[in-house]
Hints:
13-stranded mixed β-sheet, Jelly Rolls, 13-stranded antiparallel β-sheet, mainly beta, 6 domains, Tip attachment protein J domain-containing protein
Amino acid sequence: MPNLAPFAAAFRRRLANLPGPARASGEASDGEPVQVEMLINGEWVDITPYVMVRDNQGRIGIDYGIRDEGSETEQARSTLPLNNRDSRFTRRNPTGPYYGMIGRNTPIRISVPDGNGGKSYRQQSEISKWPKGWDPSGNDVWVDVHADGLLQRLSQAPPPERSIIYNAITSPPLTGLVAYWPCEDIEGSVELASALVNGSPMTWTGNPDLAAYTGFGASDPLPTLTGASLSGGIVRYDTATVTQYQVRFLLAVPTVGFSDLDVIARLQVAEVAAGVSLLNFFDIHYNDPPGGLGSYGGPGTLSVQTYDGDEAPLNSASISMDVRGRLLRVSLENSISGTTLTSTLRVLDIASGVTDSASLTHTATSMSRALTVSLAPATLAGSAGVIGAAVGHATVQTTITSISDLGRAIQPTGEAAGRRIQRLCAEEGLSFEWVGDLDDTVALGPQPKANPLSVIREAVFADGGLLYESRSTLGIGYRTRASLYRQDPALILSYSSHHLSEIPTPVEDDRYLANRVVVSVGGVTATYEETSGPVSTAPPPAGVGVYGANSESPVTLNLASTAAGTLRDHAAWRVRLGTVDEDRFPKISVNLAHPSITPEMRRAILALRIGDRLQVTGPPEWVGPDTIDQLILGLSEEITHFEHRLTFTCQPASPYNQVGVLDAADTRIDIDGSELLTAASSAATALTVVPSAGQSMLWTTDSADWPFDVRAGGETMRVTGVTNWLTDTFTRVAASSWGTPDVGSAWSTVGGGSASDYAVNGSVGVHTLSTADISRRTSMTAAGPDFDLYCDISTSALATGDSLYGAVTARMLDSGTMYMARLEFTTANTIVLVLRRLLADASLDLGTYTVPVTHVAGTFIRVRFQGVGSRIQAKAYPAADLVEDPRWHISGVDSGISSAYSIGTRSIRVTGNTNLATVQIQYDNFRVINPQTLTVTRSLNGAVKAQSAGTDIRLANPTYIAL
Length: 963
């Protein structure tokens, strides 16, 4: 039988005109109400009594953020029914209480108690639709309100009509702006229009090339001066209180510069009162003195020169910046104190932000009104105007401001993505909030002249963060990509404790798979491809084949840099996101009405933000043992009389969890490939591992790097120690044998001579060569055919008569079959490393190397000996060296011996050697670093299983370098 309670409640409300939902977010009988407010006549009015839930179908519905993984943020939406029996929500009914006060885009906000005595705003939006409905009796009259977030309105905004810098100067106008010529006039114009209503245009002589220069990214095309001169009059302004003013313009200087004393700009001022120093002209000119010397500045600099009414020169000052090839903002600033006028020439390199300035003073003068501004005047005081310059955005202000007062609006290229979003919101009059460091976002390229929302989305896409709408105000928010890294979970739910309102359905498909990405910036492309692993571009079954963008359809980004490395990093990050090898959980739902949700959890759920990390522990075994770990991209809420259900749109958090930098203490870079050498039971805590086929990278033995987690066969384990398979420092004492090393199995004596020729004396292992032509050998059974070992070797005396020989061996079957890295200690006290194969007593030398030292008895030479498949290599260097020589001194390929057999040492002296029978070959610090032994804590993720030999073992949470 169906539950009739909702229908009964709805019927009672309808008869009694009761509001709904009447519970805390609609969820429990002892809760508090939802509050719905509407902005009416500038004030927030509580309209909760008119919100109703109709016949168990009416509800408050809220959608927020990203609706589906892989898409972009959509405008927030809310729907709710309002009781409209008194026509207050009929916007066209003149008798309605709210007539003339509501309409399209009326703001509305929805909140629930946050559990701390305040409100948790669930959405603030604008009502876009007021559809009305009623039943035939007229007892039930309602409006199904549809409200959209701010992004809806922004998406409809037209692109700006004027350039970025134009808008920055005029909207709002710069302080004290009395003249402004943008100079962005199109080809065919007959004058350069003033941007001010009461301003006069700028005229020219000659033939400027209009709209020809596009080097200023914030501007529409500007004129290039090809022998032309521009001049504009300045509107009369009140000089009674003006004690300072400035003239500014943009200037592009060609790399070749101009001619010496070419005039770039002239400011003409009104004649001053009689009896004071005459001062009528201020020129800015270029310096390129013959021979690099002159009365003005050095080559490539600018100077300010003053003149009297007869154009006789007065004072000058020069900057030191070489302006050739630069994009500049040039400023001439005049201010007066008493009867002393200070004139400053200041320049800003737009690309670098570097400034330079020079000042001069005039005494016994006064401030007069600026009359005209001329750019590249043809002939003034006998100096020619510049040729080849591009100029524009000339302004005159009756105040002096920072030359950087336009901020990034003068040069958007290089602007941090977060700062661009912030600036655009300020320009649109929107409130802005953020999570993360806005400066720790990618540097963007030029700002397109496009719809503001599309420009914001372009910045979001380039940085890879999350755009969202503020809930507490009608505004925009941005969560930076870096703020998503390495978060602690904001909420942990338990599957077994019934915290979820719906079963989280895992999805494993190729919908968002991208293992090859091509990134394009400004026509330059770079590619990153995942070539190994289960979701690589390798053909199945080694991988999945190629998924992702190709050169015909690249991912286009607006970045400041086109460097190949930068583009490849961006491509690699997108491949990282597109090759997450785990189930996706697109939807995770909770119901705040469920008794399993504690007050603390309710507060935490309501406080969740876009981009927060959410975990679900204890999923059923058929899902897998790992905690479900997701990032929140968006949410949908449904508030009824009985429930408050929240469904989070999610994506895997793992790509963001292990992001780091190389020098961080907790950075863990994954191994190239590692596998179990021998099988391990489900309870084994010591695992023998070797590099995978063709690899040689080893696990760290630095205890400062422990612990770290690894994964093998789906089981997560914690590594608490890494040791060499064999380590022997020979600090024990043993006679007639070498005994047992510090780590590893006991040594076996397999060579000739007597038992007394083998001993450990407390510091070294020795082979006493009491007889000639008979090798002494110690060994132990190898773990596998591949090996990587170190050993220090020396002699007790210098060789006489003939050489002494000491070697480390591998794949040693007997005295006549082995590989060896042998040191020959000659009678000339040289040391020769020989890489040799013995096969059935037949020798083959794979290479030799003379160690560049003179041998001293008792001084050790360190040998490193490595074999991976058929690649055999060795090196030798003084054991006292603090840093290992990175080169392999001998490297060869030989497949004559492929079985593991034994590793060990071999010593011999030959006929002709005249050393005493007590001469020794000494060995110390014997280490087999491959294989390795991992000490582990098993089954961190609940997976209990035996592991077979050959099982791949890698870091469970490797660090990926931050973009």
